[in-house]
Amino acid sequence: MTERTRRPSHPRRLAAATLGVLLAVGALAQPTAAVAQETTIPVEDLVGWSGVAFDGTSVAPSAPRIAADGHTGAGAVEVLLDTGARTVDGWEMAVRSLDDAPLDAVSFWVRAENVTTVGVQLVDATGQTHQSFLPVPASDGWQELTLQSPVTEPSHSAWGGAGDGIWHGPARQVGFVVNGWARADTAQPTARLLVDDLTVRAADAPSGFALTPGTLGNLFTEGDPLAFPYTTGADTVRWTVTDGDGRVVDEGEEDADGALDLTAPGRGWFSLSVEGLAAGESVGSATTTFAVLAETDVAATATGRYGAATHYGQGWDPASMGALAVGGVAQFRDEVYWSEVETTPGVYDWSRPRAEFLDAARDSGVKPLLLAGYGNPLYDGGNGPVSDEAVSAYAAYAAAMADEFGDMSTGLEIWNEWDLGLGGNTNVAPEHYVDLLAAASPAVKAVAPELPVIGPAVANLNTDWLEQTFRLGALQYLDGIVLHPYSYPVGAEALDETLSRVDALVRQYNGGESIPLWVTELGWPTGTNARAVSESSQAADIAKSAVITAMHDVQRTFIYDLVNDGVDAQETEENFGLLHHPQDPLGAFTPKPAFVSYSTAAGLLLDATATGRDTSVADLWNVSFDTPDGPLHALWSTSDRAVTLELRGEVVITDLYGASRTVAAGDGTSILLELGEGPVYVQGEVAGVTASETALTLDPAYLGQAVTARWTMDNRAGTTDRTVVLRFDDGQEASQTVAAGTTGSVVVELPPASALGELLVEATLLEDDVELGRLTARTTVGEPVTLVGDQVALADGSALRLTVDNASGEPVTIDRLTVDLGGSTQTFLDGVTVAAHESATADLPLAGLAGRTDWSAVALVGGRELTASGVVVPLDLGTAVDAAHRTIEVDGVLDDLDDLTPIVPAATGRAADDQSARAWYTWDEDDLFLSVEVTDDVHDQPAAGANIWQGDSVQFTVAAGAPGSATGWHELGMALTPAGPQLYRWLAVGEGPGTVAGARVAVERDDAAATTVYEVAVPWVRLTGVRPDAALLSSAFIVNEADGEGRDGYLAWGGGIAAEKDSAQFLPVRLLPAAGTGGGTDPGTEPGTGTGTGTSGGLDGGAASTAQSGTRGLAGTGVDGTAILAMLGLGALAAGAFVVARGRRASGHRP
Q1: What is the domain-level CATH number for residue 627?
Q2: Does residue 241 share a domain with residue 123?
Q3: How many Å apart are CA 776 and CA 793, to the nearest integer?
Q4: What pTM did the predictor assign?
Q5: Contact yes or no for 868/818 (Cβ under 8 A)
Q6: Helix, strand, coil in percent for the chain, rounding step 5
Q7: What whole-number distance in Å separates Cα of residue 395 and Cα of residue 437?
Q8: Average pLDDT over residues 791-801
Q9: Would 584 be classed as within a structural domain?
Q10: pLDDT digits over 399-413, tens only?
Q11: Is a pLDDT exceeding 70 seen at residue 1103?
Q12: Are 1095 and 1034 contained in the same domain?
């Protein structure tokens, strides 16, 4: 669950090579077609082409060749390699000028003979050559290959020019390389590649407005002028600034003069959007982020608690080092590679790491934690050192590093994640690591006695590897214990238990004494991957981890990492950064919200000493500290809630991003404080914290319709009636009088929503004109009429169901609904009317679907265009598990399920030795149920919350549609913890990890029978995207097994949970209708009886029918059958028809 997919610890170095030659060749030919920034270059002759070759020794020009066999037109360029002339180490390349073309991707057509791989070389504006290798599938014909980015292929390397591995467009030239090693049959001396029809793509047309670099990363401190340079041909610029909570804090319009100077909005994280206008028309726009931070003392923060992991030793631009200083986290952890500094035995050359980053660090005052690694080919073949010679050589290298850099470093880390085999190490036994430590630590101490030596930098804290190193005597050689307690996407709260557990283990083997803990890697990736979190959640988790590590008095915390490693939102490894990647459209090194939340926490906690945690309020974290400025409380909640604070004196309240306000509490006053997943900091005397039910919520909202707000006021602790006013920021007011000892609630109608997207409403609570606190509420404003599509289960197979939902108060008419499935398109449903608060559905049977197929649909309703898209996959419902329509009493006692066939999961690992299980899915209109009976001789579950997977527990997934069709899904787990039964959610669609509102869970253990019964009811409204009326979902579950040493195996039904996160490994679950209702088009509905006929595209005739609004049975509507009958001519599908129905909106199933 918690392990991070690692990239190699020592990736390819950006080295000069002889493979690329920048050639002066002809200008770019006129394209035959150009659409926006897509340019196609055919090959009709050799104008603009040149060649170069390598014979294993030297590079020389090579005459280009034209072949008469073209993909289109008369010819193609030929790349012919003859290893008899060029040697097996040689290559041949054809080169084409691109004449400074904007380029983000390039496609081209190839025809190959004896070629398995083609090298693509692109030269950027700095003269830097970027090379990537693309596989060439075996084929006798023409096929199109695409390089999606100049820099993101795993095989990417770069040299020359800027030499930084970063793409600096535009593109000067492209080359196509055939290497001797790329021959499919090496017995044949020749390999031949034809290239035709190049298509150069740029992500966007050139904008008439561009922000230009100014202050590094737009990282400002209070008092700095906020200046944003730009280039434009516009005469006017218009801008909007929003803060981290989505509030618009500044906006305006002014004459264009090349720089936008903003009024400082106070501390915080902000997003800036600017548009250039010429004669009132937009010529382009740009968006960036910026931060306004508190001033910091670099010298103080360079020896403080907090820093960030970096990769300057792997070629990062050291310019980002300045962000550490301005952000108040002036420390970094980086590598000084053994193989680079010792290329001759016993001789050390430190010039490279000095030039790359260590001289810059010394000059700036930012301090490094240095990592001594990894293997050196001079010893043990570059593997992890285990021989006496290699171990001694490593110890000498570590000591030499300490001698060279010890005066500027905060510590020296002995290797990194030895337990995972990082750095190409296969010698992962704990004995090998302790032998290395026993040699290196004394050697370092001999030359730098005050420099902390830390280790073992363990990655997997769920095995006994760390404890084995302690048993073998590692602690006597360490000044600090290194751990990498990743838990993403689970929140930072899991860190508390991990730190307590590791500290207890240290004390167990160290005579009851602690040794300082060092967290040298910890982070949460953002992006679109299933295990990524939102940027706001990353900001909250980074800040919470700073609080929790300070609470445990962790010596150092290094967030992984400072800068995003790429721009692919799907790759978790590229999105851990606190700052954006140098090539991010938002600007190089610009801040993500987490940079500001980390800076805020680091500043407040710099000299803080933990004094305790108040756990009296459920779900509330209230951690207290002493600081030089007085008491400090860090508060947040794992579920949104309000608390009442009893304050005395002057109190400063600071939010997640550093914005502060002062409350003059005098002899004592109470204020209401809303809390969520991010910490709020209270500096001053807090006499008490109590839970409050006071809240403001918003119903789902629709464009152009009034917004319904619900205000609850808590007076349960009151001894007298209270009359309280809620004043909204737009001036509207509401009031209520709440009796003593009770809670009151009122509904407030707010003005109609004027824009789509998130709606933020804020208001002030007042009593006798005295402010009691602030309330905020959010909802999403959607279109009142929407189009959605789901893959559903019918009695005779699966179908694509399209639903038009009408949430408005007026009937609407579907002018037209068009669906494209796998390239076949049909228009249908002309003139069908959908009544207010009802829906219309249409089902397209998917029998005969050949493979995973994209679909898209467009509905024209009242002149508005609605769109939906997705994928459907082939599904044999005969393989689906049937979930009966049955309500389960969630009490830990297995219901009578003998009439249902149980699921029996298979064993993985050692779980088969003493464990078995059977399970049942059931459902009703409100909940999805999972019941599991486990037979296990020992029940072991010491953990809670996010860590329950480490002990006996059940994890399960729920996704919409057929297996593999969902890109986001829900993953939950249930366990009998020391605190009782718990349900925890790791993954969700549209919600964060944690508890599940409205869910019910029960777990009962019978030691005499050696059985454990797990029962859970998850409300459909908490399973966003999963519609029970679709009668289809995909799922998997595992039963984790532990007998005292962590998870050592599991039983599994399906996959995609433990080994990797992959919805394609889930299995289908069909929701059966309630008994006596038949097998209708929806669970619990009667089948239709209306009929009509028609043909299209050679499909057989079919039937269609409609339902009266407000009913679920099917009956006539008075609409001409031909108007609602829709038959798609899809050759890949078996005969089938759209089944059309109308009924009440399923709003209860879509929060």
Answers
A1: 2.60.40
A2: no
A3: 41
A4: 0.72
A5: no
A6: 15, 40, 45
A7: 8
A8: 90
A9: no
A10: 999 999 999 999 999
A11: no
A12: no
Instruction: Output the domain CATH number for residue 242.
Output: 2.60.40.2550
Tell me how far apart the alpha carbons of residues 542 and 139 are, in angstroms, rounded to a whole number. 50
Domain shared by 798 and 856, yes or no:
yes
- What is the domain count for the chain? 7
CA dihedral 956, 960, 966, 970 (to 10 degrees): -30
Domain that holds residue 149: 33-201
Q: How far apart are CA 1122 and CA 1100, in angstroms?
A: 16
926 and 1046 part of one domain:
yes
Q: Which domain CATH number covers 740? A: 2.60.40.10
| 3 within a domain of the structure (yes/no) | no
Residue ranges of E strands in 783-837: 785-794, 797-806, 812-821, 824-828, 832-834
Structure tokens at 655: 């939010």
CA 355-358-361 angle, to 5 degrees, is: 125
CATH number, domain of 89, equals 2.60.120.260
* Ordered DSSP codes for 759-780: EEEEEEEEETTEEEEEEEEEEE
Q: Is residue 421 situated within a structural domain? A: yes
| Alpha-carbon gap, residue 578 to 563, rounded angstroms | 6
Residue 99: what pLDDT? 84
pLDDT for 1117 beyond 60: no
pLDDT, mean of residues 481-502? 92
Tell me which of 643, 666, 692 is where a domain ends. Answer: 692
Tell me, yes or no, whether 1043 and 998 share the same domain: yes
pLDDT over 60 at 472, yes or no: yes
Which residue in this structure is represented by tokens 């609409």? 1119
Taking the C-alpha atoms of residue 67 and residue 451, their distance in angstroms, rounded to an integer, is: 67
Does the pLDDT of residue 1114 top 60, yes or no? no
The DSSP bridge pattern shows strands 853-861 and 838-845 to be unpaired
Residue 540 region by backbone torsions, left for phi larger than 0, else alpha for psi between -120 and 50, else beta? alpha
- pLDDT for 48 equals 86
Instruction: Specify the residue for token string 């009886």.
Output: 1089
Whether pLDDT at 6 is above 60: no
921: CATH: 2.60.40.1190
Same domain? For 637 and 658 the reply is: yes
Tell me the pLDDT tens digit for each residue of 720-746: 999 999 999 999 999 999 999 999 999
| Exposed e or buried b per residue across 563-580, where buried means at least 16 C-beta atoms within 10 angstroms of its C-beta | bbbbbbeebbbbbbbbbb
Confidence of residue 9 (pLDDT cuts 50, 70, 90): very low
- Mean pLDDT throughout 354-368? 96
Residue that finishes a domain, picked among 780, 802, 825 = 780
Residue 19 lies in a domain: no
Structure tokens, 572: 């978790």
Q: What is the pLDDT of residues 889-930, one digit of tens each?
A: 999 999 999 999 999 999 876 555 678 999 999 999 999 999
Structure tokens given for 958: 């729920």
DSSP result, 386-404: -SHHHHHHHHHHHHHHHHH
Give the pLDDT confidence score for residue 1081 in this predicted structure.
41
pLDDT of residue 469: 96
The domain that holds 451 is classified in CATH as 3.20.20.80
Cβ neighbours of residue 116 closer than 8 Å, sequence gap 6 or more: 135, 136, 182, 183, 184
Residue 326 sits in the same domain as residue 387: yes
The stretch 147-153 carries a mean pLDDT of: 89
Residue type for position 281: E
Please check whether residues 717 and 793 belong to one and the same domain.
Answer: no
